[in-house]
Each structure stands twice: as C-alpha cells, then as structure tokens.
Specification:
Layout (H helix, E strand, L loop, with lengths): L9 H7 L6 H7 L3 H13 L2 H20 L13 H70 L1
Helix pairs in contact: 2-5, 3-5
Length: 151
C-alpha cells in the first residue's frame, strides 16, 4: 500500500483496529465437558509424576509377586498375567483419550498460529503507515529546504 499524500492518522488506525483476542480462551470456550476432561487427562498423563506412579506401581507389583511369601502372592512370576491384563486395560483406556487431547491441543496450536498471522499482518500494515509518514516528512523537508534555498 502506498500513501503518497494522505496516510491514515493515528486515530483512524486505532478506530479500525480489532482488539487482540486470546486464542486459547476462544478455543477453550467451545469445548464440551468431555473435551475438557480429555484435555485434563492428557496433560496429567504427560507428566513425570504419572511416569513415576506407573514405574513404582510396576516395580512394586513385580517385587511383591517375586519376594512376598507364597500365600500372599497373587500374580505368579514370571508371567505376571494379572499385571499384563491391568496394564493393557489402562493402555486401551488412555491411548484414545490421549489422542483426543492431542487433537484438542492441535486446535490450540492452529488458533495460536492464526492469531500470530493476524498480528503480523497488523504490524506490517502499521509499518507501511509509518514509512508513508516518514516519506511524507521527507518530501515536506525537501520542499521546505528548496524554499529556504530560493530565498
């Protein structure tokens, strides 16, 4: 855009500006309660705390069923069938839930990228206006210098 003679004023720019919105709030406002639940689980499962819980649960299970007295062992080594069954059930429940949460996080990322693009477009427009103002000032200064030189 070239503004050789009448670039927009600061008031005009402020008037035409849309307020900047927070992308995560816009996306989150449209989530259903189940999507909020999936997102919460995804964020919880993706922590070191959850990793340590699973690690200690597994180590405890295996050691208990190897080292405990025979009458207290409930999952015979080396197969650990109940542990495998419980782990598989946990995986079958968490995997689709995590995928849903990741899709929701993808919506956040897409909205954030769109907002970044819009902000960059605004900045580009404002820079063009500033450059147009500077060019007009240069022209006025040149004209003023020419007038002063004539006198």
């Amino acid at each position: 855009m070239e503004y050789k003679h009448n670039p927009p004023t600061l008031q005009e720019l402020r008037h035409t500006r849309k307020p900047i919105e927070q992308p995560h709030m816009v996306v989150r406002a449209n989530f259903s309660p189940l999507e909020h639940f999936a997102l919460k689980i995804t964020r919880g499962v993706g922590t070191m705390g959850f990793f340590f819980i699973l690690t200690f649960w597994t180590i405890g299970w295996i050691f208990w069923n190897i080292l405990a007295p025979l009458e207290f062992r409930f999952d015979p080594a080396p197969a650990f069938v109940i542990w495998l069954f419980a782990s598989n059930i946990l995986q079958l429940i968490l995997l689709p839930l995590i995928m849903v949460g990741q899709n929701l996080e993808g919506k956040f990322a897409e909205r954030r990228a769109q907002a970044d693009f819009e902000i960059n477009k605004k900045a580009e427009h404002e820079i063009e206006v500033i450059i147009a103002h500077l060019e007009n000032q240069n022209e006025l200064l040149l004209e003023l210098t020419r007038k002063l030189d004539r006198k």
